[in-house]
Design goal:
The chain is α/β, with parallel strands linked by helices. The protein is about 35% helix and about 20% strand. The chain folds into two domains: about 10-210, Rossmann fold, CATH 3.40.50.150; about 220-275, Orthogonal Bundle (Helicase, Ruva Protein, domain 3), CATH 1.10.8. The protein binds S-adenosylmethionine.
Length: about 280
């Protein structure tokens, strides 16, 4: 296949810069630039967008994003060993790449981006869920991003897109689907990465809705859902009893049978139940 740019192959970049993968930083690198360009394409047209990438590492996905035409990429990398490799990418794409050395969980990146913003990342597995939950629970909605295109362990991806009745259905599915359209767009085997992780991976696309899918107060919804799934094997009339003495009436008014378990209840009904706590 044709090279996507004139920079050296990633295997060479890694050996030239001594980038031995560190497990503590969730470093499983993608070395196939045609694959990283394909991941970049899953995020849609990037030519009018700022792209936030968390964890560029040696720059494989960064190069994919730039080669696919991203207007500008802000890449946040914790591992200072990766900076020389990223500086070389910056030089090859003048004025289009900004590199920030630091912890993505601690830096305020939204203020450095101009809308519309798409987030595209092969996330380190150890911070993936935490950072996704932060992006889905900002102080105000809509958030700073219009879409998230993120690599997760397959099991986490399945929890994001899960439907009622499935074992994966829980707090993450409700949180994500309440505020975004979600879809698994790619699946990758362990061998796609260097070193290969133990598990399969999937890329999930989340597109922010202009407003949440059903009316609900975020704190109340979160409290109801946390209580319901905290004891997911129990019937809701008992797992939610601590929330209100009249919980059975509230469940019935939200169209939920008090003998149902959390994993049977659709998002819309959880929102209706949370609204009974609004007064
Ligand atoms: N994007 C590269 C690729 O696809 O080959 C590397 C992906 S690797 C799974 C995750 C990257 O995130 C590593 O480069 C790691 O150093 C970086 N990283 C880990 N924790 C981070 C954090 N808290 N903030 C920013 N980057 C982090």
């Amino acid at each position: 296949m044709a090279a996507i740019d004139s920079l050296p192959p990633l295997r060479q970049v890694i050996s030239d810069n001594g980038l031995t993968a560190r497990k503590s930083l969730g470093q499983n690198f993608l070395l196939d630039l045609n694959l990283t360009a394909k991941i970049a394409r899953q995020a849609g047209d990037l030519s009018q967008c700022d792209v936030l990438e968390i964890g560029p590492g040696p720059g494989g996905l960064t190069r994919g994003l730039l080669a696919e035409g991203a207007r500008r990429v802000l890449a946040v990398e914790k591992d200072a060993r990766c900076l020389p490799a990223l500086e070389a990418v910056k030089a090859a794409y003048p004025g289009r790449l900004e590199i920030l050395n630091g912890d993505a969980l601690e830096l305020d990146v939204a203020s450095r981006l101009a809308p519309p913003v798409r987030v595209v990342a092969n996330l380190p597995y150890n911070i993936g869920t935490e950072i996704l939950v932060r992006w889905l629970t900002p102080g105000k909605w809509p958030p700073f991003w219009t879409s998230l295109t993120l690599m997760f362990q397959k099991e986490v991806a399945q929890r994001i897109v899960a439907q009622p009745g499935s074992k994966s259905y829980g707090r993450l599915a409700i949180l994500a689907q309440w505020r975004a359209d979600v879809r698994i767009v790619m699946s990758l085997p362990p061998e796609a990465f260097t070193p290969p992780p133990k598990v399969h991976s999937s890329v999930v696309n989340l597109t922010a809705l202009a407003k949440p899918r059903y009316p609900a107060n975020p704190e109340l919804l979160s409290r109801v859902v946390a209580s319901a799934f905290g004891q997911r094997r129990k019937m809701l009339r008992s797992s939610l009893r601590a929330l209100a003495p009249d919980i059975e009436d509230r469940l019935l008014s939200a169209g939920i049978s008090p003998t149902d378990r959390a994993e049977q209840v659709p998002l819309e009904a959880f929102c209706a139940l949370s609204r009974t706590f609004e007064e």
